[in-house]
Specification:
This protein is of the alpha/beta class. The chain is built from 8 helices and 5 strands; from the N terminus they run βαβααβααβααβα. It binds thymidine-5'-phosphate (TMP).
């Protein structure tokens, strides 16, 4: 049995939906309240996991999609063992930029990997560890892509519109199945309106 004392909050979104801006806001908001907090990201969060991140996101040669899933979970196992689990056990709030929902969305929805394979690895690597709260920043894909058009794109961001449509749909399907954990945030609203929604969710879970 996996017992934690802290809180595990993850941020997800379609590429270009403004997730990182809101994550920075959330981290500052919680730190201002003197909450013990660890900010981290996936893939990444440890030296090895960051190396795996570079291998996957910067790869210029095609990667088999099962290989991609296995690399994501190798990075995740290191991250959970060395960063996430110790932080939760010490009572901290862990705020993580993406987690396993992203594997279901990108490798499952986007690249077509059978979700049952991802579930097998999820159980192996995480045991019963799941986020307590996931904020999913949602935006129609064509709008999100326009927001990204001026910056350098990683491998996934460079994928076709249809790939991103499948990613978005996979996230929305998961949110429908787990409404208590995954909160969908409409990113077409103004930044300040979104901040209010984020703050409301944080207040609810941290109290
Ligand atoms: P981001 O930090 O800008 O969100 O970039 C991370 C990228 O990695 C993003 O395009 C989603 C992708 N990703 C996956 O494809 N699978 C995963 O399991 C994770 C955590 C991220």
């Amino acid at each position: 049995m996996y017992v934690t004392r802290g809180l595990f909050i993850t941020f997800e979104g379609v590429d270009g939906a403004g997730k990182s801006t809101q994550l920075d806001f959330a981290v500052n908001y919680l730190r201002d309240r003197k909450i013990d907090l660890v900010q981290t990201r996936e893939p990444g969060g440890t030296i090895l996991s960051e190396q795996l991140r570079d291998m996957v996101l910067k790869s210029t040669t095609p990667l088999d999609s099962d290989t991609e899933v296995l690399l994501m979970f190798a990075a995740r196992k290191e991250h959970i063992t060395r960063v996430i689990r110790p932080a939760l056990e010490s009572g901290a709030i862990v705020v993580c930029d993406r987690f396993t929902d992203a594997t279901f969305a990108y490798q499952g929805g986007g690249s077509g990997v059978d979700p049952s394979r991802i579930e097998t690895l999820e159980h192996w690597v995480q045991g019963t560890l799941q986020p307590d709260l996931t904020l999913f920043f949602d935006l129609p894909v064509d709008v999100a892509q326009k927001r990204l058009s001026h910056r350098e794109k990683d491998r996934f961001e460079s994928e076709a519109l249809e790939f991103h449509e499948r990613v978005r749909q996979a996230y929305l399907d998961r949110a429908k199945k787990e409404p208590a954990r995954i909160k969908v945030i409409d990113s077409s609203r103004s930044k300040s309106q979104i901040k209010v929604l984020v703050q409301k969710e944080l207040d609810r879970i941290c109290n």
